[in-house]
Structure formats: C-alpha cells, structure tokens
Write a structure and sequence with these properties.
74% of the residues lie in helices and 0% in strands. Helix 4 packs across helix 7, helix 6 crosses helix 9 and helix 7 crosses helix 8. The longest helix has 25 residues. The radius of gyration is 19 Å and the shape is globular.
C-alpha cells in the first residue's frame, strides 16, 4: 500500500498529473496511453499503476482535486442556500468548466463525459449538504432534498456549460443575471 503522505509519493503523483495534463493539450484523451504518461513523467509503468488504476482514475483524481481547490470558503461553510451562495456556485462552476475546456482538447467525448459526470456529482453533493443545513429545507425528508439538489445542480451546471458553448464565457456577470434569478425563483418556498 502506498503511503499517500510520503513526499516521494506526492512528488511522483504530481509528475504523473503534469505529464497527463501536458499530453491532454497535445493529444486526445482516447489516444493517450499509460506508456505515454509514464514516459512523459520519467517513471515506469509499474510506478504509474502503483498510484492509479488507469488513466480514467487519474482523470477523476485531477478533476476532483481541481474542483475542490476552486470551492470558495463561503460555500464550504454555508449554512443556507441564499443569493450569495448560489452566486458563488454559479461562478465556481462556470470558472471550472471554462478552464477545463480551454485546457483540454475536446476531440474526445469520453473525457468530457467523465469530467461532466464527476463535476455534476460533486456539485450536487455540495448543494445537498447546504440544503441539509438550511432551515428552509430542514423539515424536508432526504429524498426531497436529493431531488431539489439534483434540479438545482442541473440548472447551474447546464447554464455554465451552455455559456461556454455559446461563446460568452468572458462575461460571467451576464450568466449570473440569468442563472441566479432562475435558480433562486425556482427555490422560492
């Protein structure tokens, strides 16, 4: 078992992530092999497999770490889902989607599907956690909160994704004007 706190392990994982990110900018996800990653990171394939099951696990790890690093403190400690919390979630999701799609080549549907699914799950869990602490939702059962969280997540994520695709990603203030009103009116209890 690999000790995740060992500086050598951390350094090796960082080399693997940097190699993978560099390759993503040059090649499509589907054409990247473990051999490519290992060579770029100057490690052997066995070392790669000591850290990750496959390139999909590596992609999920990179996605999760990057997304978690973007979560604003206000959202992490939010006790209620209010305009400011929603605003932060919209901006964070938009920033993540724009930075991801500008960094990675988009000629692979598999990478987009994996990343989109991972981000949606993380965003939904974050929203669900906030709703479970919010007095407006406190009396609702867990299934109700899950459904409302899923709908709220879908609205935020879809708005940010469409914003990227429609080419207005340099004006998140315009996205906020549309999405914030829609989400908060939908939650009006």
């Amino acid at each position: 078992m690999v000790n995740q706190e060992d500086p050598r392990v951390l350094r090796t994982r960082q080399l693997i992530k940097e190699a993978f990110s560099s390759l993503l900018q040059k090649k499509g996800f589907d054409s990247i092999t473990i051999k490519d990653i290992a060579e770029k990171a100057s490690i052997n394939r066995a070392t790669f497999y000591a850290h990750y099951e496959d390139k999909y696990a590596l992609l999920e790890d990179i996605t999760e770490v990057a997304f978690n690093n973007m979560i604003p403190e206000k959202v992490l400690h939010a006790e209620e889902f209010n305009d400011e919390t929603c605003r932060q979630l919209i901006l964070m999701t938009c920033d993540y989607i724009v930075s991801f799609y500008k960094t990675c080549r988009l000629d692979s549907k598999s990478i987009a599907t994996i990343v989109d699914e991972k981000i949606r799950k993380m965003l939904q869990l974050m929203i669900e956690n906030i709703f479970s602490k919010d007095a407006n939702f406190f009396k609702r059962d867990s299934l109700n909160i899950k459904i409302i969280s899923a709908m709220t997540c879908s609205a935020i994520y879809s708005a940010a994704y469409t914003w990227l695709k429609e080419g207005e990603n340099d004006r998140p203030d315009l996205l906020l004007d549309i999405a914030l009103t829609y989400v908060m009116k939908g939650l009006d209890l």
